């Protein structure tokens, strides 16, 4: 909704995190005329895309005192989306030739980091970032947002802002499966957050729990290295059975029923296996240890709420916002639109509904989720509703609608991935959509 009532405003805005989300949001805020400080605890931009060979001191990622590693990337990771989809809409992720570039359509992780560095250089984002600065407290005081941050030398400082945008990423705090008997089970456990390469699993019997992106990629990589791979997944992913059952070291099962002192794992299909390692590819939890809102914003069963359209807590809007919560969506174009919305609301270009109207919208959204049987922990999953959400944001921001080729390419990629887990990154059938994408990109490159 355009805001014709108020004068344009320039605010002093803190962005927490200089991953893809933070740098894209910082650009939107700067373009809108806000003064921006990005707090980043690492020494470089890129967040998830800054690969580390290190793993955490607790490979399962549950001990609160463990040494922490931010990135969940494994060494061989290539993107699971084609580059046409991944880039910011007006700064496409084009293939670049040259010594250290990876021009493949589904490039390796270093290429994504390079693209983010190109983006940050192009738009002067690094000058806005305070590196080596960890935000340890965010709270509202007398209508302003107080931020406490710790610098690399240990010194703690405070500063006050008009608004805070939280862009800390959602793939760092592991969520693990609850397994009856696990406390007495003698084997090793690891979360995919701490998986880097297949070598430590050589000759072992491995159970992989979960069969989304990480579960499928990692189990593929374990073929020929691990002795046996047993995949436990909630939904019977029957479309995958044909692909996997042809490889005799891989078995698909329903979830684990129990595990035992002697190393046995019993699956719900009655199958019993002696197992060396359980690898949890079970996703991540939202986590905002620095945020103090007196209970106004909570994380409950992985629902961050209440949030209007996954971004603004009605009672604290527009001063506090979250960018990047939705999953099963295409991240960077999403950050761009959510960031543009936040920037436009803060400058008074775009009006938010009243607090009551936003709360009513959130309540209706929760009721619809419940009626559809969707569990609470999937509140921020977009999936099929992604194009509608993106179009809503685009219309609200006065931006062009989500292009049809994006929707079709996303679907085509998923179908190809599920049918061809081992080859979808190198063989595809959507060249016409790719042609449309590059026609679109030519607007920004000529
Ligand atoms: P992050 O990249 O996690 O960045 C968050 C930043 O916040 C980090 O730099 C962190 O250091 C900083 N930070 C956190 N807490 C604080 C604090 N308290 N103070 C200061 N700084 C802080 N997306 C795709 O588009 N294509 C893919 O193929 C793809 N593959 C993926 C594969 C894996 C294994 C994973 C985990 C993710 C993948 N993604 C993919 C999604 C990817 O996470 C997003 O593309 C995007 O990089 C997320 O950016 P972000 O800024 O939200 O979070």
Low-pLDDT runs of 5+ residues are none
- Quickly give the structural class: alpha/beta
Q: Multimeric state of these chains?
A: single chain
Strand content: 15-25%
Strand order of the largest sheet: 3-2-1-7-21
Bound molecules: flavin-adenine dinucleotide
Approximate shape: globular
Question: Over all CA atoms, what is the radius of gyration?
Answer: 22 Å
* Mean pLDDT metric: 95
By DSSP, the count of extended strands is 21
What is the count of DSSP helices, taking H or I runs of 4+ residues?
10
Major β-sheet, in short?
5 strands, parallel
Task: Report how far the terminal alpha carbons are from each other.
Answer: 32 Å
Into which percent range does the helicity of residues fall? 25-40%
What would you say this structure looks like, in words?
The protein is of the alpha/beta class. The protein has helices spanning 20-31, 83-86, 109-122, 213-222, 238-245, 331-346, 355-371, 386-397, 404-419, 431-445; strands spanning 12-16, 35-39, 129-130, 133-141, 144-151, 156-161, 163-166, 173-174, 188-191, 205-209, 228-232, 250-253, 256-259, 264-267, 272-274, 277-280, 284-285, 291-292, 298-300, 303-305, 320-322. It has a five-stranded parallel beta sheet with strand order 3-2-1-7-21, with helices on one face. A five-stranded parallel beta sheet has the order 9-16-10-11-12. Helix 1 (20-31) packs parallel to helix 6 (331-346), helix 6 runs parallel beside helix 8 and helix 9 packs across helix 10. The longest helix has 17 residues, at 355-371. The chain is globular and about 70 Å long. Bound molecules: flavin-adenine dinucleotide (FAD).
